[in-house]
């Protein structure tokens, strides 16, 4: 993840984050005051589709949901035509905020009770050429999600969502089903893309998959030393799952409804043990 020298402005009013509201072909997204309107816009993805978001967010009709934010241009830097919205932490966690790297920095600090104010470096992982493109399958059956468990030295474990690298000429959807078959023995039907994650130079795409069949014998699977396991969905927020920022969102979406557009998340978390709710 790289950071531009020019910072963006982080403003709070009455405990809410002030953002500018913009729209692209798929709907509303938000940027920090002082950030360019297209900051963090990934553009067409590797499969030729346009980037999405995390479903309709507050203020997508151009109104200010908090009613307490400054008007356009009040800091002398924001666009005169971009309306302002005021988001609570809960709203911001599910909003499409660009650039994703800066949003991660702000949301992490805010969720930990130390919300930054003033200038923050503009970090746009979506604008960096990926070192790898990964496609993952979110498979839920009977209230449990299918994960790959890796046993660590000392007896601990961490988990990954089934998936792997997209091969040359392969679509994301084809890669999801191929990797699911190689790692679990399951076949299936690809549903909507629910998340795009930028992590350590990788661009990762996660899809809901309706899987059929049963997990195959271990000797037939290619899991790089891991083992497929079913984990109750409600346990995800406290499960050491990678990518970390996606874990509790899957549990949340399973209860409340899946996003209309893919969530856009930067994830620089390396320690998977502590719960992550932001």
Task: Explain how this protein is built.
The longest helix has 13 residues, at 172-184. Helices cover 15% and strands 35% of the residues. Strand 9 (144-151) and strand 10 form a beta hairpin. Residues 39-79 have low confidence and may be disordered. The strands form 3 sheets. Strands 1, 2, 3, 4, 5 and 6 form a 6-stranded mixed β-sheet that branches. With 278 residues, the chain is of the alpha+beta class. 43% of the residues are buried. The radius of gyration is 19 Å and the shape is globular.
β-strand percent reads 25-35%
Q: What pattern of helices and strands is seen along the backbone?
A: EEEEHEHEEEEEEHEEEEHE
Derived from helix and strand composition plus strand pairing, the structural class reads: alpha+beta
Q: Distance between termini? A: 19 Å
What is the CA-atom radius of gyration, in angstroms? Answer: 19 Å
Low-pLDDT runs: 39-79
Please tally the β strands and state the result: 16
| Mean pLDDT across all amino acids | 85
Q: How many individual helices? A: 4
Instruction: Please tell me what the overall shape is.
Output: globular
Biggest β-sheet: count, sense, barrel?
6 strands, mixed
Kindly report the oligomeric state of this protein: single chain
Fraction of residues in helix? 10-25%
